[in-house]
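Q: What does the predicted 3D structure of Putative iron-dependent peroxidase look like?
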Amino acid sequence: MNTPQTGILAVVPDHARYISFQLSDRTALEVTLQAIAAQADGERVVVGIGLSVVEALGQHIPGLLAGPRIDGSLVDIPCQPIALWLWLRGSSRGELLHVERHWVELVAPAFSRQHSIEAFKYDTGRDLTGYEDGTENAEGEEAVAVASVMAPAADALVGSSYVAVQQWLHDFKTFDAMTDAEQDNTVGRHRISNEEFDDAPESAHVKRTEQEAPTPEAHVLRRSMPWSAGNRAGLVFTAFGHSLEAYEVLLTRMSGAHDGIIDGLFGFTKPVNGAYVWCPGMRHGQLDLRALGL
């Protein structure tokens, strides 16, 4: 049976690069995807396929969308569809520079690079605001069930994952002007102890994204990492799931489309791009692209 790409379930690395590509040459698509499947190990290089590639191949991945589009959202949620997504994971910036060079050249026959975002682990896995990220993540077999498609789905889909990726840009001047209590109320947790408090306002992030609150429950596996470029910085939000439904439920609540209450995070940070992709599972040590007709 297929298994998820191992980098999805592993802890976030010390350094990473998120690279997005657009489809540039349909005639070279099949051979390029086969080269990707042969070289990607799913651990140091996690691969995601966008809707435009699926459609170019005349195939269908159930539930795959190009990116977030939340009806009734009270905030701007950008959608910038991508064709190919690579999450490069490593231990040093220099290492990943050379890995990125290799992969950009490998996929060049069919794909052109759109964005490259340099990310890193901060402290023990915190956002640059100092708050711990992914505190409600499932672990072990529960994490596998949350993050990947399980049987009895079609064999070629088992072990695959749906991924929501958003790059958030923080306004640190606004955040720093808030008192400690205001910051904690915005998140709904104490920054130092990481404990949630029951009397947090309904706009607190933990209230907006409480995975047990919706019916059915909306669980995702977060693997987000901070990013920086010059004096700009924020968080690359990355959520894996066995579908996109849970993430869309949470984003609907964050955006105010559910009940008119906007997540307090929007007071000091905002998404500047966002897309959905599908990560094939691994079969016999390679990416399983049978669902794409390959």
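A (community wiki): The structure tokens above were generated from the sequence. The chain has one domain: 6-286. The radius of gyration is 19 Å.
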